[in-house]
Amino acid sequence: MKKSIKIIGICCLAILIGIGVYVTLPSKTLDFRGTITEIETDDNDTIFYISTAETTYTVVANNKTKVSYCHKDDPDIYLGDLKVGDNIEGNYRWLSKNNVAKFITVEYHSQNDNKLFDITTEPYSSEALKFVTEKETYSIEDKVIKYSITNTSDFEQCIAGDDDCFSLHKLVEGKWKRVGTKKEHYWNELGLILNPNQTEQREIDLEEYFNLPLEKGTYRIVVENLTSNTFEIS
Hints:
Number of strands: 18
Largest sheet: 7 strands, mixed
Order of helices and strands: HEEEEEEEEEEEEEEEHEEE
CATH architecture of the largest domain: Sandwich
Oligomer: single chain
Structural class: mainly beta
Distance between the termini: 86 Å
Strand content: 35-45%
Radius of gyration: 26 Å
């Protein structure tokens, strides 16, 4: 009898130690996180190519892959709903050799949920660079804003390298706020040289970066730290 009680006691102690070790183990980090840049299908598999500022991943999903938004109160989402531009994260299946995902979590963007952020550095306007939008007033139905930057000086001037190098600011109660984008927004460190009197024409696909329609109000575009004229969306 005493021997049986001793064995039971040892077993209980072992279980308690096992639980303690499990609780103190650090949680498993995510295997992948980034923005979907390309999607392919191969038989029953869906292949996602995703990227971050540092690296790229290949994620394979199938009908056993669990897909959900970040929060339990968000609506349901299915594998076929994922699209280029979505931000996803998750883990691969245990011992998977082909990067098959066990689960994929998708960042959820509700309609018109363009978050506003404080700006840390006040942009400037330059006498050497004329930065203007095509129009001074846009409709909330407009999906593209075109702008130009012209070197009005007698010397070469350098501006940000490509169309992605911008931010959109909104005037809120007398203070400028940056409008958050719905996709990863990377900055090209390479600059573009403008010769005297040279003009660079660019455009912003609003639908690609923001949840439309944007709120009515006063806006400006900032490229690197150079600001455009102000314009209205009404």
